[in-house]
Amino acid sequence: MKIEKLEPSQHKQGRWLVWLEDGCLVRVEEGDVVSLGLYTGKELTQAESEALAAAEKRGQMDRRAVALLTARPMSRKELEDKLSTPVRRRKKPGREEIQPAPEALERERERLAEDARRTAERMEGLGLLNDQEYAKTVARHYAAKGYGPRKLREELYRRGVPREFWEDALAQWEARPDQLDELVSRRLRGAKPTQENLKKTSDYLARRGFSWEEISAALERYKDQWQE
Questions:
Q1: pLDDT tens-digit map of 17-43
Q2: How far is CA 45 from CA 24, 31, 48, 56, in A?
Q3: What is the Rg, in whole angstroms, of the alpha carbon atoms belonging to the chain?
Q4: Whether the Cβ atoms of residue 156 and residue 142 lie closer than 8 Å to each other
C-alpha cells in the first residue's frame, strides 16, 4: 500500500492526514508520523499498514478518553468501562439491521477492554487520570453536601475507586456536631420533638450515611435545646 499524500490537519493541531492509494484516509498523531517513518510516496509493508491502522485506533480512543475526562473527573474503572463499551451506529431508515454473531461481539469486547486498559495507562501517565485524587474529590463533594462517611464509602465503591485510596480520602472528612445539628434543625424546623418526627429525622440522617451514635447524639441535643 502506497501513501499518496501526507499533510497536517488544518483543523486539529498535532494531527496528520494520511491518504492511501486505495482512497482511504487515515488520521494519526504527529508522534505516529515520526515513529512510523511516514512520508509521501512511501510503500507500506503489511506490518506497517497494520501499525498505521493500530495508530489510528489508538488515537481515536485517546481522544475519546480526553473528551470524557474533560467533561468530568472519573475513576480508572469508570473510564475503562466507558471506553470498552462498543459504540453502535444508528440504524439507517429502510435498512435491515444485521446483528453480529455472539462470538464476534465477545471478541470485540475483549479487544476494546484491552485497548481501554492501555488507554487508561496513557491517561495516568499524562496526569489526566488519578484514582487517589479522584477519591478525595468524591469525598469532598459529598461531605460538603452534608453526607456521612457511609454514604461516602458507597459512592467510592459505586465509582470503582480502589479500596486502597478510601481511608486517605475519608480522613479529610470529620463529623462535626454542628453539621448534624444543622441538618436536624432544618428537618424539624423548630417543631416540638415527638416520637414520630424524631423517627423520620433519624431515618433521614441514616440515609445520608451517618451512624446511629452520631444521630442519637444530635437528636438529644435538639431535645435539650427545645426544652430550654
A1: 999 988 899 898 888 899 989 989 999
A2: 16, 19, 5, 17
A3: 27
A4: no
